[in-house]
Automatic annotation (TrEMBL):
One of its GO terms (molecular function) is calcium ion binding. It comes from the Eukaryota. PANTHER family: CRUMBS FAMILY MEMBER. Pfam families: EGF. This is EGF-like domain-containing protein. It comes from Adineta steineri.
Length: 228
């Protein structure tokens, strides 16, 4: 009876061990694609064979050089050695971990007060209003060209006027201080003495014939005028 009881206990222990191993394999305690191996010498009854870069009793620690967050913005990490890596960045990003956005406007000049805007993979120049166009805002509209020509014309006229005024002032100074000629000074002309002429009296005589019948036909009226 004692032997029978002992053998029964051994079978129960073996069954419990087998059931434990079965539960362990079903649970898959080894992480990160590691291999689970039965080991009767350990309390757990198994060991995990970890892949390169993983460690721990269940391979739960990741010591790989290239991890999911090593390269930012969906960059691809390439392990060049056990301690170094290289990130292949997507378009528009740069840096060791692809963390720096590329500035495409660094060496770009937008004309006519245009503003350069960096895009994900290129750049564009934002022109002011509808007066400028083109990739670098270098094309001017007809209205702007006309205004520039008019302003230049007025500028040239003002410059010519100033130059003429300066030449006139310099010429006047040269005539005055080097040649003793002052054209701006008015010379007084001598007045001529005008003698008053005496008025000579003029005597005018008018003869009128009377047409009246009462008077004689030969009657004459004499009127004298004298100018003194």
């Amino acid at each position: 009876m004692r032997l029978f009881g002992l053998s029964l206990r051994l079978r129960l222990v073996e069954n419990s061990i087998e059931s434990t191993r079965t539960r362990i394999h079903l649970r898959q305690p080894c992480q990160n694609n590691s291999t689970c191996l039965n080991d009767n010498t350990t309390i757990r009854g198994f060991n995990c064979n970890c892949l390169s870069g993983f460690n721990g009793t269940e391979c739960q620690y990741d010591y790989r050089i290239c991890q999911l967050r090593t390269c930012s913005y969906n960059g691809i990490c390439y392990q060049s050695s056990n301690t170094t890596f290289t990130c292949s960045c997507n378009e528009g990003w740069q840096g060791v971990h692809c963390e720096i956005k590329m500035n495409y406007c660094k060496n770009i000049t937008c004309y006519n007060q245009g503003v350069c805007q960096s895009l994900s993979s290129n750049y564009t120049c934002l022109c002011i209003g509808e007066y400028y166009s083109g990739r670098y805002c270098e094309i001017k509209s007809g209205k702007i060209v006309t205004l520039e020509r008019v302003s230049k014309s007025f500028g040239y006229i003002a410059i010519i006027f100033l130059i003429g005024t300066a030449i006139f002032i310099i010429t006047m100074d040269l005539l005055k201080y080097y040649f003793g000629i002052d054209p701006a000074r008015k010379r007084l002309r001598p007045r001529k003495c005008v003698k008053k002429q005496k008025t000579i009296p003029v005597v005018q005589k008018f003869y009128y014939k009377s047409s009246l019948k009462k008077r004689s036909e030969n009657s004459i009226v004499v009127i004298e005028e004298t100018n003194i």
